[in-house]
Design goal:
- This protein has 127 residues and is an alpha+beta fold.
- It has one domain (2-125): 2-Layer Sandwich (60s Ribosomal Protein L30, Chain: A).
- Helix content is 23%, strand content 25%.
- It has helices at residues 45-62, 83-93, and strands spanning 2-4, 19-21, 25-28, 70-77, 103-108, 118-125.
- The two termini are 17 Å apart.
C-alpha cells in the first residue's frame, strides 16, 4: 500500500492522504473544490463541481491511471437543489470516457469542510 500525493490537487487539510494505492485499486480522499495553485474556492456549484472533479483527476493521474479507470464515485452536496447542475458538469467530465459512467452515490449533507458546496471521492481500478 502506498500513499499518492500530487501538487495538482489540494494538500490534505487533516491527518489523511490524498489517496491510497493498494495495487489493483486507488481510493481517493474526498476532494473539495480548492484550486491547488491559488487556494481559492469558486463561488458557484458549477465551478465548484468542475474544480472538485479536476482535483480527483489530478490524483488519479498521479497514480498512473485516467478517468476511464474510475469505477465508483461518491458525491457529497450541501443542497440537493444543485443536483441537476452537478449532473451537467459530471456528464461533461466523463463524456469522452470509453468505459461509460462509473457507479455513483450522491448524498446531501449538512456541512462540508471550508463550507464548500460539494466534495467528491473516487475509487479507480488498475486493469
Amino acid at each position: 500500500m502506498k500513499a499518492i500525493q500530487t501538487t495538482g490537487a489540494p494538500a490534505a487539510i487533516g491527518p489523511y492522504v490524498q489517496a491510497v494505492d493498494i495495487g489493483s485499486l486507488v481510493f481517493t480522499s474526498g476532494q473539495i473544490p480548492v484550486n491547488p495553485k491559488t487556494g481559492e474556492i469558486p463561488d458557484t456549484i458549477i465551478l465548484q463541481t468542475q474544480q472538485a472533479l479536476e482535483n480527483v483527476k489530478a490524483i488519479i493521474t498521479q497514480a498512473g491511471l485516467n478517468v476511464s479507470n474510475i469505477i465508483k464515485m461518491t458525491v457529497f452536496i450541501k443542497n440537493m437543489e444543485d443536483f441537476a447542475e452537478i449532473n451537467t458538469v459530471y456528464e461533461s467530465f466523463f463524456i469522452d470516457n470509453q468505459s461509460g459512467f462509473p457507479a455513483r452515490s450522491c448524498v446531501e449533507v449538512a456541512r462540508l469542510p471550508k463550507d464548500v458546496l460539494i466534495e467528491i471521492e473516487a475509487i479507480a481500478v488498475r486493469v
